[in-house]
Amino acid sequence: MRIAVIGPGALGCLFAARLFLADNEQDQILLIDHKKERAELLNSRGILYQSTETPQCCHIPVTAEPASIEPVDILLCCVKSHQLSSTLHSIAPLLNYSTLLVFFQNGISHLKYGEEHTLPLQVAYATSSEGATLLADGHVKHAGSGHTVLGFLSPAPDNNRKKLQQLNERLAYAGFSCSVSDTILNRLWEKLFVNVGINGLTALYNRKNGQLLTSCAARGKLKTLVKEAEAVARKIGITIENSPVKATLNVCKRTAGNVSSMLQDIRNNRPTEIDAINGEISRLGKELNVPTPVNDELLSQIRNLEKRKK
Length: 310
Hints:
The chain is an alpha/beta fold.
């Protein structure tokens, strides 16, 4: 199989490197970047994957010209949610019915591409709790193992279901814990609850995940943020099996030393994914007449923080 990973960020480099290091002779791994200079750098130096003190170098082919490569079987889209529209435009030459596109974005703003059938191919969705930190361009540190879930929002043709199962097998072969789910929408919302409660607050307070639990004010806001999101989800009809608040608090404890992706973005003066996370709860709340005042406030605070960082 030919598998292309779009986006040399932390998650993109992690999946590309581990699939490459699995050394499955049947597969070819490619990496797609939107920056020509960075693509040239990564081609000459390789991707550095670090899970121990000594990083491993992966000479994965990298291109900034999607039209120049032959068709691929699977595209793993690992860019940030706010980059998705421009990314899909740039990779348009690769989007056809013979390819399966798998979205790995945080939040739920990207669901529209599957719900509205706006793309000329079948799309699948993934949610992953793998921990990855980008130490420098093309240098990723595997910060902690998690689980990756893959699935379709609606029934898919046999050939696409087969490709998704093959991807699951490739990821397992590369050492990832992974599975295919018939309820991927519920799984995406489960992760959304966690991101709603943790990411924005860590960015606002400049704290690691676990430090949200040491402040009564932060802990209280976390609970309210998640409860508002849960109310929105129930109004939509999302099946909720376990307490989202308890699950979010458990993630805080389990990842106490982690620097969230949103806090990393703020510290590095990059746009955040606040609109795809708390912003979606705020938007849906207004549409459904479900009050979300704490999510509304956090959305405004992070947007202002982004402006001050420019």
